[in-house]
Amino acid sequence: MNTYNTIQSxxxxxxxxxxxxxxxxxxxxxxxxxxxxxxEAIKQTEQAITALEHLQTVVTxxxxxxxxxxxxxDAWRVSDDLAxxxxxxxxxxxxxxxxxxxxAEEYMVCGE
Length: 112
Fold this sequence. Notes:
The protein is mainly alpha-helical and 112 residues long. It has helices at 3-32, 35-64, 72-110. Helix 1 (3-32) runs antiparallel to helix 2 (35-64) and helix 2 packs antiparallel against helix 3. The radius of gyration is 18 Å and the shape is elongated. The model has no long low-confidence stretch (mean pLDDT 94).
């Protein structure tokens, strides 16, 4: 298996195991607007951030190792894919922050 295919497999695995679940849980938290849903989304997103950090380290090592078969064009594609995932997670963090404020304000108004 060549380097690019290995990296693509890792990216797909990250998306399936971390990114898509984070998106789903943030959406669920926004729909429910409850503390438990918010905390679940925050926990999943935090795990996704940690996993992305590890994925970036692994990708860097794969690209820099002796015998790497990745082309410059493929390296740019991988870099773009990682950047898109990072920006998506940053957006989720912003959404969770806003939702936290909304939930806190609602509980303050309701006195709960």
